[in-house]
Amino acid sequence: MDKILEGLVSSSHPLPLKRVIVRRVVESAETPWSGPQCRAMFALSTRLILQGPDQFQRQVGRQVLEAYARHHRDDFEAFFTRDLVLALLQGAGLASLPSPPPVAAPAPSPGLAPSLDPAVLDYVQAGLRLLISCPAVLELFALLQGEALRLVGERPPAALCARLCQLLSDFPQCLPRGRKPALAFCQQLVRSIAHFQTNGTREAELRLYVSQVTQVSGLLRSIWKAEPDTLLPSLQELFAIISSTDTSFEPSVALASLVQHIPLQMITVLIGSLTTDPNVKDASMTQALCRMIEWLSWPLAQHVETWVIALLKGLAAVQKFTILIDVTLFKIELVRMVFNRLWFPLVRPGALAVLSHMLLSFQHSPEAFHLVVPHVVKLVKSFKNNGLPSSAPFLEQLSELIHCMMYHYSGFPELYEPILEAIKELPKPNEEKIKLILNQSAWTSQSNSLQSCLSRFSGKSETGKTGLINLGNTCYMNSVIQALFMATDFRRHVLSLNLNGCNSLMRKLQHLFAFLAHTQREAYAPRIFFDASRPPWFTPRSQQDCSEYLRFLLDRLHEEERTLKILSSSKLTEEVNEESLVQEVSSKTQLFTKPSCTAREERTLIEKMFRGKLQTSICCLNCKSTSYKEEPFTDLSLAFCPPIFLENVDLPSAENLSEGKDESMDQVRTTTFSPVTDVAPDDLAVGDCCNMITNDGTLKDLPTDTDCENAPDPFLCKPEDKDSLRKHVSEATPSVTDLLNYFLAPEVLKGDNKYYCEKCASLQNAEKTMQIVEEPEYLILTLLRFSYDPKCHIRRKILDNVSLPLVLELPVKRTVSPLSPVSGMWSMGVEFSDTGENLAKKLKPSGAEEVCCPQLIPYVLSSVVVHSGISSESGHYYSYARNIASSGSSLEPCDQAKSLALAYPQSNLMAGEAPVAAVEKQLDENEVSKEWFLFNDSRVTFTSFQSVQKITSRFPKDTAYVLFYKKQNSSSALSSKSANGLWVNGDPPLQKELMDAITKDNKLYLQVRSKSLVLEHRPYKQLQPHAPFGRMDLMTMIPQEAAGQQVEAVGEDLVLLAD
Asked: For position 692, what pLDDT does the model report?
């Protein structure tokens, strides 16, 4: 019968005829057969199952074997012996059987015997099922326990390993018994999964591969559940594989299939033991974390993102910031890989969770976020157009992440503008929610070593400028320091000082300026200077007012230098006689009474660079007597003017205008221009101008219906305009010139603010006028943007846009005669509304010995410090700046008729070329400082003046706050050649001690950087997508037409579900 059947299946008869005959052969199994006849049928059916050339012959073999074994169980038990099974598993079981028809042998699999095929395991499983009730099956179970351990140790491919795991799942009696064999089997199975690879590119092949891996990981889950003692050693083996730094072997991403079977309750224990294990090196931990992030590519793995985020948090908890920085910032392909996973619905939720945590937790540098910024617009547009149900919630989550990042890393308008346009229709989280998200995700600790790690690999930017590392909400200091550094004349004076052996704050500033100018680092950490210059009432690691810091810093530098000069002068007086001492005291007394050259030489550096003088005159409107007072200033605080002031038709009179300039403004001025002292922040008047003007410029006496409780930000506290004129005025954009003119405009003191006249001996109405009588080299203007809202009892920010002129004219009162500037002849009633002939008449000397000449001094914009945010207690500071040096000789004290004009209105300038036109022409001809730089903590980039002008119109919460203007045609700059003749038209040479420190730091930095760049590529091997045995990135292999679909396991089948 076996010969007939063998000839039949290999004949050329029609297939229906063959099936009829085979059915009769199967039915004949019910009749009695001798032992040899049964064994012959068993041998034939075995050959057909294992070596049949086509599906028909293999199917015939299975039918015949099952029929004859069921009816002749004793004979099959004698045939299906331990020796036969062992021979089959070792690839030699068919040698003694009659040869089947010649067929092509399957290609051998790597690491396996050439004859082993998954069909062998199918045959063994069928035999075990037929003998399950026979005693002989126990011997087969014992055999398979050892063979299973041997097979997984030979690293079988995914197909064979999956078939073996299917057999062991159906017959768990075949699993290795005992703790050691079971543990060894689990560890070997984990290693086998690490070697899984697939070269398939078609969807069906990838789905089959995923199902095979799922089968293997499912067996491990069953073993871990039955034998809990095997779980932890298996996970240790898993970590050993993924933490290996051997670049010759890249573990398969299929290991991700194991994560979903690890109980989530073990996260805390496992992560804690890993992060605190002293035997785990940083390089190994970095490698393991990188590979776990790659697991996001595995389509059916669950909880991968949970474990990745837990490990990131665990590393932050033990302050292993080097690893986190390495993974987040320097393994740039990882961040991009995670972002690219957002295109695939299968792994998108996990990828977005990990990406969000990586970006939100790493709040020390925008580099990681900026890696993905160029690709955000394309991603958003794609998901807006695909119309899939899952796209809407995904876009909302992505939009929330982007808004948080742009809020935290403000100051990159050119980079963010396309993104804002793309997501403008999506919901935007409010500031409270953004702060909550950022605070919850940030690393719990920030060590000093973190700052050095941030800049250890990066070289200086293409701008040639050096950034300042944010030491924890120190952007207020960084922006001010960069503005001072870019004040070229001031920087050169500081660098030229001989301060060796001095531990003063000026010495620390010189040290900081020297490193900013000569270091090779991308960013410098100003820790020493910050600790020395921080005002005592400033809470560390909290946001502060940069204007307040600037005043404190300049005052400290001034007082320190003055003290040192006094001490130095005291030592000199001990060597002179009493007569010379009296002469010296007399000489110094004259310094404060007349502006001689000697007095200017005795001024401190801060006074030379930043000090100006204001003269306040108050004229009693009853007796016409006038009192004068001069006060020095280092910056002018400019309040926002009422809208009526911006009307160009008729300038308001001093009486009408005084209604807008209330007592609070007087307090602002008094505080601002008195010598700076150490006062608490609450004692500083920083623009309580909300009593006078709201955000849209309406007057204080206008009735409003504003409900502050329903106004979360200043944009919502806007009353309706009352008439078309006020509406027109409120829409006008004020300029810095307007604010400066409003500051200098006369004011009538009346009502509760009357002036006590000593001559009248009573309170009288008076007119108060402020005039600049001495201009500084660098004019610092602070826009009073923070005002107190008496209704809501909070400090709001005025978000009005202000036009920034590139060239500013500062009206300064001069006198022709060399007499003291403090003179009664200054009481001429020159008003800002006086023009042309009226102005000339009022300035004409009538029997006086001196003439007042209002001269316009041209200034050019040097730096702009921008505040990004909607409140004074939060936000971010960054600065725009450019290099501007002195251009030559100064103007004469009184430049005759060419300068006889005030800054407002410009149409009233007298005949002749105005100083502003001359300066603009000179700037254009000499091409002075056309390059602008954007300083945003450690990042420095090129920008343009157009970007400075448009910043508020594009980003409403980013507003100019502190402005630095440089006086043109200044004669107080350093000469073009120093005393030793070593520098020309550049920064002076540094002191040897300071230069040696910078050189030593540069050498150390370059050495560490060169080593780090080599080590950076050693533990992490870049993906080679087309390498035969390279790392498998499953999602990049999925066909494009299947990218919008999701694979889901349902029992033993894989179903493709629409997203």
From this structure: 33
Rounded CA separation 615/633 (Å): 11
**Direct distance between the N- and C-terminal alpha carbons of the chain, in angstroms, rounded to an integer:** 56
Mean pLDDT, residues 712-718 taken together: 36
Q: Are strands 778-783 and 958-967 parallel, antiparallel or unpaired?
A: antiparallel
Q: How far is C-alpha 768 from the chain's CA centre?
A: 50
Report the 10 Å Cβ neighbour count for 187: 20
Is position 876 annotated as part of the catalytic site? yes
Element holding 224 (H helix, E strand): helix 203-226
Q: CB-based contacts of 667: which residues, under 8 Å, 6+ apart?
A: 685, 688
Residue 393 phi/psi, 5-degree rounding, is -65, -35
905 upstream amide cis, omega within 30 of 0:
yes
Please state whether beta strands 778-783 and 636-638 pair in parallel, antiparallel, or not at all (unpaired): parallel
Rounded Cα gap, residues 503 and 241, in angstroms? 54
Tokens of 217: 């990981």
Q: Tell me the pLDDT tens digit for each residue of 23-67.
A: 888 888 888 888 888 888 888 888 888 888 888 888 888 888 888
CA–CA gap between residue 888 and residue 922 (Å, rounded): 12
Count of C-beta atoms within a 10 Å radius of residue 321? 22
Interval 294-312: pLDDT, tens: 888 888 778 888 888 888 8
List Cβ neighbours of 45 (8 Å cut-off, separation of 6 or more). 60, 61, 62, 64, 65, 68
786-789/794-797 β-pairing:
antiparallel
pTM above 0.70, yes or no: no
Catalytic option among 186, 404, 475, 619: 475
Using an 8 Å Cβ cutoff, are 611 and 756 in contact? no
> What is d(CA 962, CA 690) in angstroms, rounded to the nearest whole number?
19
For residues 160 and 163, give the distance between their C-alpha atoms in angstroms, rounded to a whole number: 5
Note the Cα 939 to chain centre separation in Å: 11
Per-residue pLDDT tens over the stretch 608-650: 999 999 999 999 999 989 898 999 999 999 988 877 666 643 4
Helix, strand or coil, per DSSP, at residue 832: coil
pLDDT at 977: 44
How far is the C-alpha of 949 from the C-alpha of 939, rounded, in Å? 21
d(CA 342, CA 333): 15
Nearest-10 crossing angle of helices 367-386, 332-340: 10
Enter the DSSP assignment of 329: I
What would the two tokens of residue 616 be?
Answer: 């306040």
Tokens of 496: 């030229």
Pairing of strands 939-943, 932-936: antiparallel
Q: Considering the candidates 364, 493, 867, 876, report the single residue annotated as catalytic.
A: 876
Tokens of 73: 């169980």
DSSP H or E stretch at residue 737:
helix 736-744
Residue with tokens 């910050």: 530
What SS3 state is found at 637?
Answer: strand
Q: Mind giving me the DSSP string for 768-801?
A: EEEEEEE--SEEEEEE--EEEETTTTEEEE----
The Cβ-side half-sphere exposure at 1006, using a 13 Å CA radius, reads 8
Q: CA–CA separation, 1009 vs 999, rounded Å? A: 15
Residue type, 4: I
Asked if the model's pLDDT at residue 448 lies above 80, the reply is no
The answer to whether the CB of 790 falls within 8 A of the CB of 768 is: no
User: CA distances (Å), 590 to each of 390, 593, 850, in order?
Assistant: 80, 5, 21
CA distance 277 to 243: 13
**Are 517 and 461 spatial neighbours (Cβ–Cβ below 8 Å)?**
no
**Mean pLDDT over residues 970-989, rounded?**
51
Q: Where are the beta strands (DSSP E) in 56-180?
A: none
Distances (CA, A) of 265 to 224, 310, 636: 15, 12, 61
The structure tokens listed for 159 are 């197909």
According to DSSP, residue 102 is labeled P
Neighbours of 696 (CB within 10 A): 21
| Residue 216: band (very low, low, confident or very high) from pLDDT cuts 50, 70, 90 | very high
